[in-house]
Amino acid sequence: MGGRLAAACATLLLLTGCIATGKIDRRANTFNEQVAVVSNNALLRNLARASHEEPVYFLALNQLSSTGVIDLHAAPPQFSLGPNLPPADKIASFGGMGPSNYLDNSTNTQFQVSVLGSKDFYNGLLGTLDLRDVDLLLHQGYSRELIFYLVIEKAKITVITPPGAPASPIAPQVVYNDPTNPQSFGLFQYYIKEAMEHGLTTETFEAPNDVASTTAAPGETPQTGALSIQAELCYDKSLALPADLPDIPKGSFCGDKPAIRRSDTGAATTSQLYVTLHDKSFPLHDQQLEIDVTTRSIYEIFYYLGRIINSGREVDLQPFSLPAETIAQEPLIDIRVNNGAALGLEAGGCFSAISYEGDTFCVPRQGADNTKRVFGILNALLALKQSVSDLPDTQTVRVQP
């Protein structure tokens, strides 16, 4: 009897250990998966709002915690002692054989959600991205074309008059990255093509924060301890097509300028660059052009993508024949809206899906790689604009199964 009792208790203890270990493992994985679902669905919901020109809202999932308690209740067997007992009372028995009398398992899950609505957060959200932000994205393995479409709002093209020549009668031209304006957007796509084939990218340099902090002569390395990282546009020879290299003047290539410069020679928002296009089909061919790029804010990126979703126009990245970069021809953003009809999905279903104002918004699991990259970029940019002050103490939401 004693051996069987010990074996039963040992089995119960092993079972308890398995449940405790398995629960922790499963719940940790569940948290990991559900945080991804919550984040993706939150981005998709804001894109759905933006497609209707409605306000967007941002939440932060601050803290997740879970506790589990497993109690083992084991009682000795019940038996009776004394003379002249009936046969039934001479047998030791366990009372209350129900499992709840021996094993009690309870769990508690808590999470905190904060509304991102501080002044600092909206300053970061509404402020235009500077070239340091763009430089970070361009060095994460994303397609340059993908980044250009997301962050560039417009470009101003000015014909540069050679010294001693009469002023050019051609007025500066502004082209907008707006797919709902086919004429301007077609010209913008042409400039994106030229930018890709000429190897447009960014590079960083260091410059003093205060121009008065250095007395170095022009061209000399400034001697100061107050340096900050800045960024500017340039053309990378390794990314450009060899036939297009003669179009670029000296000084516009990456690496042509010193790594440390005077603060009055560049800033984080430097965006001018120069090029001469020899394409005979281009109206401004064989003339040196100054191109001044204006970037978007994170807030405007949401509404830019929302307008693409609402218009139904596809913005496709093009597979340029570049020496150091391969780009698949895919839509910049692929979010299907059923509008009461079938979504027309291939096998695999939705990577992320929400219902909003009677419609289903779905990111296909297959064939929407750029959209998934855009989600990653938006998450990264939003995180870069957050600080500790953006996460105020809030009411804890408790979920207890």
State the end-to-end distance. 39 Å
Approximate helicity band: 25-40%
Write down the secondary-structure element order.
HEEHHHEEHEEEEHEEEHE
Which structural class should the secondary elements be placed in?
A: alpha+beta
Uncertain regions spanning at least 5 consecutive residues = 12-21, 96-100, 211-215, 265-270, 394-401
**Percent of residues in β-strands:** 15-25%
How much is the radius of gyration in Å?
Answer: 32 Å
Number of strands: 12
- Biggest sheet descriptor: 4 strands, antiparallel
Number of helices: 7
Kindly describe this structure.
The structure is a single chain. By secondary structure, the chain is α+β, with helices and mostly antiparallel strands. It has a four-stranded antiparallel sheet with strand order 4-3-8-7. A three-stranded antiparallel sheet has the order 1-2-12, covered by helices on one side. Among the domains are: 2-109, no CATH class; 130-296, no CATH class. Mean pLDDT is 79; it is low at 12-21, 96-100, 211-215, 265-270 and 394-401. A hairpin with a 2-residue loop joins strand 10 and strand 11. The protein has helices spanning 2-51, 119-126, 131-138, 144-151, 182-197, 298-311, 369-384; strands spanning 59-72, 103-115, 152-159, 173-176, 200-208, 227-235, 272-276, 288-295, 336-337, 350-356, 359-364, 396-399. The protein contains seven helices and twelve strands. The radius of gyration is 32 Å and the shape is elongated.
